[in-house]
Specification:
GO cellular component, one term: cytosol
Largest sheet: 7 strands, mixed
Strand content: 5-15%
Pfam family, one: Aldolase_II
Strand order of the largest sheet: 3-2-1-4-7-6-5
Number of strands: 7
Shape: globular
Protein name: Aldolase
Order of helices and strands: HEEEHEHEHEEHHH
Distance between the termini: 24 Å
Structural class: alpha+beta
Number of domains: 1
Helix content: 25-40%
GO molecular function: aldehyde-lyase activity; metal ion binding
CATH architecture: 3-Layer(aba) Sandwich
Radius of gyration: 16 Å
Keywords: Lyase, Metal-binding, Plasmid
Number of helices: 7
């Protein structure tokens, strides 16, 4: 993908994340460029991104001037995961509320199955503004696609930035389901997908990413 197209992709993802309610004034997203660098969105509320260019960040080394401190977690994940091509750092409201109680969404419906049996939880609300914290979160993420940060949002990784944004929306939808099930008084252990059911739903064929991505960028 040429440089202009990559910039356009990052801007679209930033706007989609902000305007769909997955992020407010804070948050950021990025797309891998190659084995040594990635492009992160402008340091501003993502929903307000217009034609502001993203910034190229080295996977290893100091952050460029003006890049937000928590972008270190992008560096740490890209360094450990050659399969990751895009990352979103957001603050979805339902997921945030559950996280304050140390709760992550269980796999209860189709699009919640992608995180079965549930995303990782980082049990620390402090910002990830140093290399050590970023590295520890990346290690805790492991081979997963999302790690919920207690009282501090979530980091979502995908093969592409489009997939990461879609997974971000899926996880917040799973959080809404989790919240509603608990509000209705059902036992938290009931109504979960079993391993076979979850595996059967973890498919990407049929334009799963493309259809949700097109919807997100139209919001």
């Amino acid at each position: 993908m040429e440089a202009n197209a990559r910039q356009d992709l990052v801007r679209k993802a930033a706007r989609a994340l902000g305007r769909s309610g997955l992020a407010h004034a804070y948050g950021h997203c990025s797309a891998r460029l190659d084995g040594d660098s990635f492009l992160v969105c402008a340091a501003m509320p993502m929903g307000l991104v217009s034609d502001e260019p993203g910034v190229v960040v080295p996977i290893s080394g100091p952050l460029p001037e003006g890049v937000l401190g928590e972008v270190r977690v992008h560096q740490a994940i890209y360094a450990r995961r050659a399969d990751v091509g895009g990352i979103c750092r957001t603050m979805p409201p339902a997921l945030m509320a559950l996280s304050t109680q140390g709760i992550v969404p269980a796999a209860r419906h189709g699009i919640g199955a992608y995180f079965a049996p549930g995303p990782a939880l980082w049990d620390d609300p402090r910002l990830l503004r140093d290399d050590g914290a970023a590295a520890r979160v990346a290690e805790a993420l492991g081979e997963g696609s999302a790690i919920v940060l207690r009282g501090n949002g979530v980091v979502v990784a995908g093969e592409t930035l489009e997939q990461a944004a879609v997974l971000n929306w899926f996880l917040e939808d799973a959080a809404r389901i989790e919240r509603d099930v608990r509000m209705m008084g059902f036992a938290p252990e009931s109504g979960r997908l079993n391993a076979e059911e979850a595996a059967a739903r973890q498919v990407w064929s049929g334009g799963v990413v493309e259809r949700m991505w097109n919807w997100l960028i139209s919001v």
